[in-house]
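quick one, two chains, predict together pls
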Amino acid sequence: MKPGAVAIVGAAETTRLGHIPDMSQIQLHADAALNAMQDAGLTPADIDGVAVAGETPIAIAHYLGITPRWVDGTAVGGCSFMLHVRHAAAAISAGLCRTVLITHGESGRSRIGLNRPPPSPASLVGQFELPFGPMGPPSMFTIPVLRYMKTHGLTHEQLAMVAVVQRQWAGRNPRAMFRDPITVSDVLDSTMIAYPFRLLQCCLVTDGGGALILTAAERARDFPQRPVYVLGTGESVETPMISQMEDFTSSRAFRVAGPTAFAAAGITHKDVDHLMIYDAFAHLPIYGLEDLGFVGRGEAGAFIAAGHTAPGGRLPMNTNGGGLSYTHTGMYGMFALQESVRQMRGTAPAQVEGANISVCHGVGGMFAASGTIIMGREPG
Amino acid sequence: MSDAKRPRPLPTPETQHFWEGTRAGELRLQRCRPCARAYFPPRPFCPHCGGREVEVFVASGQARLYSYVIHHRAVPGFTPPYAIAVVELAEGPRMMSNIVDCPQTPEALVLDMQLEPVFERMDDEITLALFRPARGDTP
């Protein structure tokens, strides 16, 4: 697939974010989808491809009145939408469909109309992890970190700085849920959740959604918004069991998805103006910066603590405030993609001046999956 | 720690030998005959080479503390704070477990400390492999 052959021509989040007790999960998908269609000047009749995680493409296509000729129900957790962008770009390039709608909606906080079943006690996770008392991502996704800290000497203060820096970005974003500045002490004094992780190192839990619309680059200039081009993409998966990840200091899925996207886009790290790394927990930007090759092994904690990813730094990262401060419905990847689109359109609240290339990197499950999308203001 | 409501695993045909092992006080792993590598969780083929020629063997029980969190929230069957750990067996594979007979603190739970299995009975069918600091009397 040629870099820049496909463009994002519609992008929107749900009208409200945070606490939305009057909408079920499927309506959050629809609210975001209708906003994205309005953004692109389209109606359901113009959409012929649907990609969805959380709900099925069947449920979403029918709810919105779409007759698709291509669907993708890839559901690998919070980075599913990165994979949808990748699959949609391939499908459009192959002529399987013309205009793809990707939707996310999740009532993570209000928990209305959720349909995610708990793991079976007969699954490998059910047999070999759940009996030992993990309760969701805060007590599982975090397990590898002490090994990373011992291997690389990452300090508790450096791990706290991830949350501090992202709050600096959130302070510039009126839609961010948490905007007040915080210090390292605030983080290290917040409630202990799962040592070494405290409350402010864990993501929010919110209601919301987002949607994207993609089409071929040659059509993209006919839409009302400035197109954002898909330059390169990558994906991979590793394991559904955090205890079985190959290397506790690095994600194999990150190491496949990231370089695949860079190679496809034909760019190097010095070309990157803006970066999103899915941050369900404070260690993820650290693993991401290293696994994507922005810094060397063991250097990411000090890199973030030195302010290089903060406002005014040389590698602006998670400029919406991230899952730690902006919003986190459960599958945050859609919100990372939305921020990359805003940065490439030049419409982000904390706009990075002159940004031409954005790397958007997602994680799914607990180091289970990964997707990387590289976007550009120009087709290549 | 109350184990009354700890989530109960449901064995499958491919994992039966493991649960029979813990019931007998043994940690039974599998290894590939051609490539000689041990692996976990159970499956009737080698995840390294794809070969079906595999055998069950009894692990030494020697293990080290590989990584963990100390969970501070209430979970049925557990009294917080409690560690959710990953241990690395001398034979190579890692598994999730709990560390017992040891304070659940960062000071007491030191990475790479030597561990040995303790078999904790849940009911007639299920016995879990937990770990405790090695007492030096293991082989």
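Residues 175 and 326 of chain A are 7 Å apart (CA to CA).
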